[in-house]
Design goal:
Helix content is 43%, strand content 21%. It is built from eleven helices and twelve strands. An eight-stranded mixed β-barrel has the order 3-4-6-7-8-9-10-11. It has a two-stranded antiparallel sheet with strand order 1-2. The N and C termini lie far apart (59 Å). Bound molecules: ligand C2E and calcium ion (CA) (3 copies). The site of one calcium ion has 4 residues, from β8. Ligand C2E binds next to β4, α2, α3 and β8.
């Protein structure tokens, strides 16, 4: 109970109390998760929209909590960002993903998500170079997914870092496109190789005219800049068909495949369930 200053007492909503407690539990558990081997990487394919061939796998973190089961990255990444643990976790994901990708066919890239917080690490470019070197992976096979906020919180540092990464030969993908505030001007200034259209636009297909208009505009703009376009969260055949007509290059989503453990990647390439 908490005094509200007028001599009466109010009780925390039990639900709120539970949220706070769970967050604290995650904070504590996350500190040791990496060393205890509770984190693993899953991989979801990006598929050429006309060829049906896998072009890339996106790396997605999974936390197998001993008492709570699988915890979603949507829940624990923000906690890792708040506590700074994302630095070590992100670097581990990067190194492990590069090592996995070195076992795949050369034509297939690996994408790794970078938190905006990782851009505060002055050693980021070196860490990427080290991960490639250690795995003996060609820089051209690594794609780094960043969000629009990385472009916006620019004090010239992120600008320089992205250009250094690009100079290493890695590709830069702009994730969740359309949910932030970046404009054409950003796409001209920054070395962007791929745009990933957020699922919220794909969900409106094939019927919503607004969704189609947005995707059509993104595709035409990207095409003139030589940027590749991936549609995220493709769940139905109707959406896939519409995305083909709209001119997207790749599709990613449950219709094609859910994220799979590392051990299932090669089988997925050999026998694609969507073919
Ligand atoms: P994201 O980068 O936008 O990743 C796509 C998310 O959409 C993934 O969720 C994926 O499993 C999910 N998804 C894929 N296809 C479909 C679909 O057809 N329908 C629906 N409803 N969802 C689909 P996940 O794995 O839960 O990851 C959530 C978010 O957590 C990611 O969103 C990303 O922002 C973050 N995340 C995951 N792994 C990492 C990581 O290693 N580092 C960082 N910094 N963030 C990560
Ligand atoms: Ca992503
Ligand atoms: Ca995304
Ligand atoms: Ca997202």
């Amino acid at each position: 109970a908490k005094a509200d200053g007028r001599g009466t007492f109010r009780f925390f909503e039990p639900a709120m109390d539970e949220v706070v407690r769970r967050k604290q539990e995650l904070r504590v558990g996350l500190r040791t998760a990496l060393d205890r081997g509770e984190l693993e990487l899953h991989f979801q394919p990006l598929v050429g929209i006309w060829t049906g061939e896998v072009t890339c796998f996106e790396t997605l973190l999974r936390w197998q909590h001993p008492g709570r089961g699988m915890i979603s990255p949507a829940e624990f990444i923000p906690v890792a960002e708040e506590t700074g643990l994302i630095m070590r976790m992100g670097e581990w994901a990067l190194r492990t993903a590069c090592k996995e990708a070195a076992r795949w066919p050369d034509a297939i890239r690996v994408a790794v998500n970078l938190s905006p917080v990782q851009f505060r690490n002055p050693g980021l470019v070196q860490a990427v170079a080290n991960a490639l070197e250690e795995a003996r992976l060609d820089a051209g096979r690594l794609e780094l997914e960043i969000t629009e906020s990385v472009l916006l919180q620019d004090d010239h540092t992120n600008f320089a870092v992205l250009h250094e990464l690009s100079r290493l030969g890695v590709r830069i993908a702009l994730d969740d496109f359309g949910t932030g505030f970046s404009s054409l001007a950003y796409l001209l200034r920054f070395p962007i190789d791929k745009i990933k259209i957020d699922r919220s636009f794909v969900t409106g297909l094939p019927d919503r005219r607004e969704s189609k208009a947005v995707i059509r505009a993104v595709v035409s703009m990207s095409r003139s800049l030589g940027i590749s376009v991936t549609a995220e969260g493709v769940e139905t055949a109707g959406q896939l068909k519409a995305l083909r007509q709209l001119g997207c290059n790749d599709a990613q989503g449950y219709l094609l495949s859910r994220p799979v453990p590392a051990a299932e990647v090669l089988a997925l390439i050999g026998q694609p369930p969507w073919a």
